[in-house]
TrEMBL record, chains A, B, C, D:
Cofactor: binding details: Binds 1 Mg(2+) ion per subunit.
Binding site for Mg(2+): S325, D387, D388
InterPro entries linked to this entry: GATase_2_dom, Ntn_hydrolases_N, PRTase-like, PRTase_dom, PurF, PurF_N
Entry protein name: Amidophosphoribosyltransferase
SUPFAM superfamilies reported in the protein's UniProt record: N-terminal nucleophile aminohydrolases (Ntn hydrolases) (SSF56235), PRTase-like (SSF53271)
Ranges of residues in domain Phosphoribosyltransferase: 306-413
Lineage: superkingdom: Bacteria
Pathway: Purine metabolism; IMP biosynthesis via de novo pathway; N(1)-(5-phospho-D-ribosyl)glycinamide from 5-phospho-alpha-D-ribose 1-diphosphate: step 1/2
Listed EC numbers: 2.4.2.14
Amino acid sequence: MGDAVNGGQSPDCDPKSSRDEHSFGPSDSEDFDFDADRLREECGVFGIFGHPEAAAITALGLHALQHRGQEAAGIVAYDGHRYNSERRLGLVSEHFSKASTIERLPGESAIGHVRYSTMGETILRNVQPLFAELNSGGFAVAHNGNLTNGLTLRRDLVRDGAIYQSTSDTEVILHLVARSRRQRLIDRFIEALRAIEGAYALVALSNKKLIGARDPLGIRPLVLGELDGRYILASETCALDIIGARFVRDIENGEIVVISEEGIESLRPFPPRPMRPCIFEYIYFARPDSIVHGLPVYNVRKAMGAELAREAPIDADVVVPVPDSGVPAAIGYAQFSGVPFELGIIRNHYIGRTFIQPTQSVRELGVRLKHSANRAVVAGKRIVLIDDSIVRGTTSVKIVQMMRDAGAREVHFRISSPPITHPDYYGIDTPERDKLLAATYTLEEMRAYIGCDSLAFLSVDGIYRAMGEKARDPLRPQFTDHCFTGDYPTKLTDVGGETKSQLSLLAEAS
Amino acid sequence: MGDAVNGGQSPDCDPKSSRDEHSFGPSDSEDFDFDADRLREECGVFGIFGHPEAAAITALGLHALQHRGQEAAGIVAYDGHRYNSERRLGLVSEHFSKASTIERLPGESAIGHVRYSTMGETILRNVQPLFAELNSGGFAVAHNGNLTNGLTLRRDLVRDGAIYQSTSDTEVILHLVARSRRQRLIDRFIEALRAIEGAYALVALSNKKLIGARDPLGIRPLVLGELDGRYILASETCALDIIGARFVRDIENGEIVVISEEGIESLRPFPPRPMRPCIFEYIYFARPDSIVHGLPVYNVRKAMGAELAREAPIDADVVVPVPDSGVPAAIGYAQFSGVPFELGIIRNHYIGRTFIQPTQSVRELGVRLKHSANRAVVAGKRIVLIDDSIVRGTTSVKIVQMMRDAGAREVHFRISSPPITHPDYYGIDTPERDKLLAATYTLEEMRAYIGCDSLAFLSVDGIYRAMGEKARDPLRPQFTDHCFTGDYPTKLTDVGGETKSQLSLLAEAS
Amino acid sequence: MGDAVNGGQSPDCDPKSSRDEHSFGPSDSEDFDFDADRLREECGVFGIFGHPEAAAITALGLHALQHRGQEAAGIVAYDGHRYNSERRLGLVSEHFSKASTIERLPGESAIGHVRYSTMGETILRNVQPLFAELNSGGFAVAHNGNLTNGLTLRRDLVRDGAIYQSTSDTEVILHLVARSRRQRLIDRFIEALRAIEGAYALVALSNKKLIGARDPLGIRPLVLGELDGRYILASETCALDIIGARFVRDIENGEIVVISEEGIESLRPFPPRPMRPCIFEYIYFARPDSIVHGLPVYNVRKAMGAELAREAPIDADVVVPVPDSGVPAAIGYAQFSGVPFELGIIRNHYIGRTFIQPTQSVRELGVRLKHSANRAVVAGKRIVLIDDSIVRGTTSVKIVQMMRDAGAREVHFRISSPPITHPDYYGIDTPERDKLLAATYTLEEMRAYIGCDSLAFLSVDGIYRAMGEKARDPLRPQFTDHCFTGDYPTKLTDVGGETKSQLSLLAEAS
Amino acid sequence: MGDAVNGGQSPDCDPKSSRDEHSFGPSDSEDFDFDADRLREECGVFGIFGHPEAAAITALGLHALQHRGQEAAGIVAYDGHRYNSERRLGLVSEHFSKASTIERLPGESAIGHVRYSTMGETILRNVQPLFAELNSGGFAVAHNGNLTNGLTLRRDLVRDGAIYQSTSDTEVILHLVARSRRQRLIDRFIEALRAIEGAYALVALSNKKLIGARDPLGIRPLVLGELDGRYILASETCALDIIGARFVRDIENGEIVVISEEGIESLRPFPPRPMRPCIFEYIYFARPDSIVHGLPVYNVRKAMGAELAREAPIDADVVVPVPDSGVPAAIGYAQFSGVPFELGIIRNHYIGRTFIQPTQSVRELGVRLKHSANRAVVAGKRIVLIDDSIVRGTTSVKIVQMMRDAGAREVHFRISSPPITHPDYYGIDTPERDKLLAATYTLEEMRAYIGCDSLAFLSVDGIYRAMGEKARDPLRPQFTDHCFTGDYPTKLTDVGGETKSQLSLLAEAS
């Protein structure tokens, strides 16, 4: 099953994601999953040093980060003599909950990784952490983000005789480290980081050290925690909470931390630049109980809902969230507006990822496997429907229709973030630009396409206000927000060439 | 794996559920699942007659009824020549979503069943529907409920040479039908029903008919639906909604409906009695979007919360639901009281049923795999915590502690149903009486045990008010409410004897 | 997987084995398995009483009896309180080699069963031993043989309200025991045996006893062994040898042995009749190292080969056995004739049962997955090819062709048993009469069909001589040999009716 | 299961095979597998070019080569655009028989590989063929043999920045090819071959070519075949026979063949040397129906038996082969000596590789799961027991004991090859020298240890005679026979260093 690997692809073949092929109109073959039109991020990372239960702790941390990636998970642990690795397709709780799996991962230091969920097949050899036996000993790396010059670097390295086993951009980093002529491992690692561009939060493990690194702008998040005197690195604070670890601080943009038996050391090999974290962590990716750069995510989302209520009020009977990601904004909207919050859509928790509608005629029933309308709340009502974002708009059409089928008198759709007009190249799986609804349609065209009575998005300044800023600073924007503004914060070396894809997402295509 | 069966037990052995063995104090080995202290019901049933996709429709209906039983699922379909059966441990979506499974179930009539989830092992041969080849042809039955004279009848039948293959009380019904000397199958079925006592909602399938039956008091629910002119039977209306079927009416207490190519016929072989449905469908079992006997469950639960706010108000900062079952009552409480509703506990959706905490020292971290406190909402606040019921109280202790750990200043615990003081014998898996917290402790003892600042339950009359009654009619109670009142509506033949168990729950013990 | 069960069949449907449908001509879809045209027997049985490792011993005994049935295996063990059962599709070594499986079978007494292998699907609920909870306690039965009035009895019992869970004729015996009005279990068992006709070797287990029984003619084999003072019952002596147990004696025809803590008791409830065991145990079924009724099977087979050399000599260069069952007869033929014995056909031991030839064009290559010709031995030679029997003749055609393709100058085919002209009804899976090559064709027609240069079978008297008799006694034949002679030793009650099948083989058809 | 991978090992850890740890005395925990003391070879290879069913043909070829490796199998196919790969632990027939697997391997050229069987765990990432995406396109390699400077080369390459994903020496070849600065792929491949020492038969696949290569001495075998005008490469002729392909010729020692759409080209980049193939192909590895360098293996083995009868005659009653590998030599011995050949040991064909004896007390029964003595042949007889080789001698002890337990009067043990006194470094998994029985013990000590009445080995000249030579030419030995003579035909670069192992066998140890 999962152990089949594609042997690679010939260089002349054109990788193309099968996920991006449908156009705006709702197609027959689409599923009715409300999450089908969300953005997806690639990963969460976790690492711990010096704990006798390193792998078990890492499994728990990854479980808390599961919302960042449901496709696959992996852990590499080092027991002082040997690196052991377990990498699996599926949820953390499916594989890493077993004592037998954890027992195969002895040692006091470990790093782990979760990957995001796709419709299609996946490839085990791309599951991280990746590992290489270097001249200096073993070296494992796990990565959240995407290199914007990954394809270019890969091509150069292959030309020079490097053999790739995965299509992951993380392997680019491994090869750069392996080929560095510097003596010390940390210098080789820094040399590798100097060669790469883009967004990354990295955790790495060597015979003596746990290393964390964040890109010069701090696009992807990484925090430092502490449990009984042992240091932890994790994508979000919720991964510290699950094990009762203490939050120490965010890793800074451009910072490298080196954790060893001697303690923790901070390196800053890059010229200082202002922090510019990804705004989508607040809108969608981070768990509501995480605290990102000092701001509780739940509170920020409620504030987005309240700003939305201020900017786009409407006379209505109930506020209905699109579950589950729309709930905090809906509570914020309801509290600001005074319109009562109600569960107008019920989520079925017992759905696996794989309920295939068995026959054509059953499919035509318009079956809703994951969600159902709560008619008692919706029928005859004017509803304000709250969601966090619109990507292609395909599921928005269905949610609005579901509300109307349940008897809603009016459906006012409110989105607690601005229109997405530009694709991402930093590890978020966005469709190409012409598939983004807001990139092509006017607001009124969008409303008509979705079929709601009114439609409003939160403004860019509104979302900055929800995060405690007065407004977006156009000269030095406080966040990475190119999906709304087109203002990309780094060079996009690979995009210039013939391939438009992010290397970190190619796995699915090859 | 699932195909191992225990061969049965000797009559002298003492079946005892391993689930009921811990006492009040929170034990080390307990898991941190908030749902661990819920009541559990045995089943949901579904049947359809005359539809070319009978098995696929049944799979979807069972998926919508999955909350009534997560342990196992089964479907029997009849293709005019042969009965085919698929019975599996696990969720409907794990097995019955596959085209290959559905293809093994050809035919235009089918019935299905879901069973509830337990911690322990389960037995495939008890998974329903059960089937027998009678003299008159095949006969399949699926059952929700429990016979209060099932053990007694079973003993008599074994003495007379009957061979049981399961420990299910449903098989008692099969044997009674098989041994009836009446001519027509429906007469044999009625003769069997006359012999049994207790609670049941049954669907049965013969070569020519789909049959539904509800016990004389209508304790367990059963509804009639219609899709493109074909009749459907289901435990709840949400199973009609998922396939776009129309709700026709509730099956009445004591009614038998016979669906065939000639249409639908209604039989009433019992003396008329007033309806007395189980009150727990409204409190916990039914899905919030179902409508039970004309009352939308979501609205009833909100009304319970509002009644609770009226009966037990408190000066507080936030209303926090215990997810997910406490949410509607918490919304009701918040709306009535004006105290804001907030998600103070975050649920991790990616947990399977099997995350085992791998080592002792990790277990001692007090890891919360399924839920985490949302500190931003809880810290420094006086919170009203809303749950739907307390059984043993073991998880209540942990939830309150989790709130305090997250910095709650005060925790006021409010329960949207009355104290549970008596066990059930009609298919709900309650612990024995001395394990029920409210059966042994006073209100103040309960508060002290749970560790909250104040504790209040909804009154019995309060819950009747939430369901639209003025109060409980002590002479002719409108609902089956013995868990709160000790007023059992039927004879309890088996309970008199040496075995205190419900036959329908013995499967897990044997 | 294995836990899917067919729910049964409607009474009006006509069960028919899909195995018997092709006619004489070699068809495209046939596989190239030399064993495809062998007779198959249903089962082997094993039981042990009073041994602390009862289930483990039984697993080993069944492994030694695996040649009697490769489709499925089961063990029931009794631990003084409870009967535990494990029944699995597949080989004994696949499932019952695991410590975890054996640990689920605690207790000091156990019985087990292996079933034969078929092409088609199989049904777990038919896997033996079968078990019933009787009024007097648990009762498990395993059966080798076939009841010639099983269908008739089954029909009567169903009419009387019995519910069948399998299609096995063993369940008929269980129901007869369950319904007997006698007091003692052993009397109920004897009453059941008095009602049945046909061939059977039974082992049964109750709370206090291990019981063995053999039909009045002793058609199917059963031996008594002893290990460290504990009694064992098994189909063949090789099941004693594997565990180092001592052979005590054959169970006699019509004998019932009752093994308990008091020791062993022998009952003979039937009028005495002369023994008449099945001749096919010697020809094909029994393992060559077993000793059946005092005769070593290997020696008998060599003697058949020698008799064949005497009856049908030929001038040739090499004697080539069809592996593996033709080897002993070929050695006997070679030693008697002086023609050298050579391995002209090589068997590939690494074949599973499931190598499906993936595509049409590959299939047309005439691939031989299981056997290959050893050209160095065959090319240019006159070969005597030795096999033990011909059923349909379909694989004989291929074997001869394989020899010719490898360059054989002449192929003289010699069969070490007489022509099979009549079907069996005692548990051997023979095709219907018109599919038996020798029932329809003359010797010369057979030779022409098979394509060999000469063809000869051993005579009926020849086979009796190989077994130490002077000749067949036509008045009181010493063996059950109806397949060669048409002389059926019992009534064939079921055959008179509309169904020609053996109940014990119906499993595959329903 | 199989998809777990060990991440590698730190350079300071000492790899040691757990297989080699027991000393001469038969230990309790040893299994009773007669094959446990055989030599094992690493692999078989297969390749085909230009056939529309390339992968299916390759699967069949690998099935025929299954005796060369039962641990794992893999196929890489190229469809003109993409290389697809399936690599699995287990038998070819378990995975590659499925149409679904073959369908994932489209294309007209394919290579495949089988690996040998071990007791312990194995590592999927070592399963061949290995693949690399080179600058020039994809490149896949499968290898039978072992590089005697593999570890040394690997160390050099890692020092230079190469990242290894497996511990296979085949990956050394891949890296050498990847790093070559030559232009044409075939020149890069030749440059790689010039760097390596040892034994190899290689098949490789590029976008345009199928390549075969044999080491300068031709130690490991490789043959060229042809099917409908398409060329095939395979380890043995039996892989041609299974698909009806024609044997063209052996690939010569030091020859490289390049098969493309233009036809076949032969390159000889090494200085010419006399052929010196491995003698063990004749003794044990090759299938009896294969023809190796013009000699039918079956005939050679019979001739070894005949030579043995000439060199070491004995007065006896029966010749008994140790199945299955001793059978041809036993036939040869019997024919030469006139002592009758008999099956004194019966093999149970239904054993999987995993029958674990479940409990200590059962283990002490001395259970024989795979073989049983045929008492009827052995009891009271003087037997000549024929085996093909003795490695550690551990199973010889048991076989002789089994014969004595079955009543053998005398046991004369005859081995159809000379004493093994030296380990192999060319891909045969021999124990270290001090574990080889004949390296430490005299003939009489061996006889006493094994417990037979007499013991004799075939002489070195005797085995050369069986292969048609007059005697061994001490100046230019005709075969690679160092295991008997200590005369290693190549440099042993790796052996000089701290590690004594063969890199190709390290997989199991890491």
